[in-house]
Write a structure and sequence with these properties.
The chain is an alpha+beta fold and 341 residues long. The protein has helices spanning 21-31, 92-114, 142-151, 183-186, 188-193, 196-211, 260-274, 276-280, 284-305, 321-332, and strands spanning 4-10, 13-18, 45-49, 58-64, 67-73, 81-89, 117-120, 122-127, 130-135, 155-158, 162-165, 169-172, 177-179, 220-222, 236-247, 254-257, 310-316. It has 2 domains: 4-115, no CATH class; 119-332, Alpha-Beta Complex (Phosphoenolpyruvate Carboxykinase, domain 3), CATH 3.90.228. Helices cover 36% and strands 29% of the residues.
Length: 341
């Protein structure tokens, strides 16, 4: 029998991963920080890596750069939600990271919604007994702001995804942070806290990116504890929701209130973009299931967003990353956290 590991994020939001030792090491590094389940009952999501015989369910074949995948997803009404994944190409760690985000976490999002949570593309910084929640697409600065706050002594529930319920309670989604070579410029205090090996790894990634003309540009995954103490896993109530965007229409950092329906629409757009790769190769049964999930997530978000102020921060697209991140951090006040209770 192939060995398996279990990871539980919330009751009913858990995953079992089966595969070779390298696969299991990857997922333990990602999810093992306080999220190990006991395997006492069937998981919500059952992931099996390796070759199998006949494929059943929706079949998704694709790849990115030097890696390929073949993913077979069971019928959406089955329990657990089972997925078979075959990988090809190298580096294998890159392939595992991609299928984790594209497929494993898309299925976890389905399981979360069915249990009353949204796996939200957002960062959440702990501020005393509540949380500042920042929503934004990839590249808007969520992770840089999070790691700066973490280095400054704030707790952190997540830099890229969190779990949130209809009462605006925020829970940590246990996963490693992703760092890029520009961390030295966007978050110098965090850079100084990195272990020497991590700094060397980031510098090597910068060289690889330059030499490959951008073709090879992997991130360096590290646990938040490499920078600071992330603190509680939650729940913490959201004190404030901030939508972050890089915009060509502004010349200076702009701040404005956001109506709840607009914030909900923005969040749903982020969710749709996050599961785009997953949805692209699915059959009609799965497309209908994902469509039915939207009003469920919408109802959770409508309730959550009604419980705290909503605003948008727009940063000029022309600003370099260090300037943009510095301006956002100053505006949000995340550099000097209040004392934890």
């Amino acid at each position: 029998m192939i060995a398996a590991d279990w990871y539980a994020f919330r009751p009913g939001v858990d995953v079992r991963v089966r595969g070779a030792a390298a696969v299991r090491r990857h997922f333990f590094a990602e999810y093992g920080d306080g999220a190990t389940g006991d395997g006492a009952s069937a998981p919500a999501v059952d992931v099996n890596f390796g070759r199998s015989g006949a494929h059943s369910g929706a079949l998704i074949e694709g790849g990115h750069k030097s890696v390929r995948w073949r993913v077979s997803v069971c019928d959406p009404e089955r329990s657990p939600l089972a997925v078979q994944i075959e990988l090809g190409g190298a580096p294998r760690s890159f392939a595992l990271s991609l299928v984790q985000g594209y497929f494993v976490e898309s299925l976890l999002a389905v399981a979360a919604a069915r249990k009353g949570y949204v796996l939200l593309p957002a960062a959440a910084i702990a501020q005393s007994s509540d949380a500042l929640v920042m929503l934004g697409a990839s590249g808007t600065g969520k992770s840089s702001l999070s790691v700066r706050a973490l280095a400054g002594g704030s707790g952190l529930l997540g830099d890229d995804q969190i779990l949130i319920d209809r009462d605006a309670n925020c829970f940590r989604f246990h996963r490693r942070m992703r760092f890029y070579p520009d961390l030295r410029l966007t978050a110098p205090a965090a850079w100084a806290r990195l272990p020497r090996g991590a700094r060397i790894g980031l510098q090597a990634r910068r060289v690889a990116r330059v030499l490959s003309g951008g073709l090879v540009a992997p991130s360096l995954p590290l646990r938040a504890a490499a920078i600071g103490d992330p603190g509680t896993a939650g729940p913490l109530p959201a004190r404030r929701f901030v939508l972050i965007e890089r915009a060509a229409r502004v010349r200076e950092l702009a701040r404005e209130p956001v109506a709840p329906p607009d914030a909900v629409a923005y969040a749903l757009e982020l969710l749709a973009a996050q599961r785009e790769r997953f949805a692209a190769g699915l059959d009609d049964d799965w497309r209908l299931a994902l469509a039915a999930l939207v009003p469920v997530e919408e109802a959770i978000l409508v309730s959550a967003f009604a419980r705290a102020p909503l605003e948008r921060l727009s940063v000029p697209r022309a600003w370099a990353a260090p300037r943009a991140i510095g301006a956002l951090a100053a505006e949000l006040g995340t550099e000097h956290p209040p004392p934890r209770r």
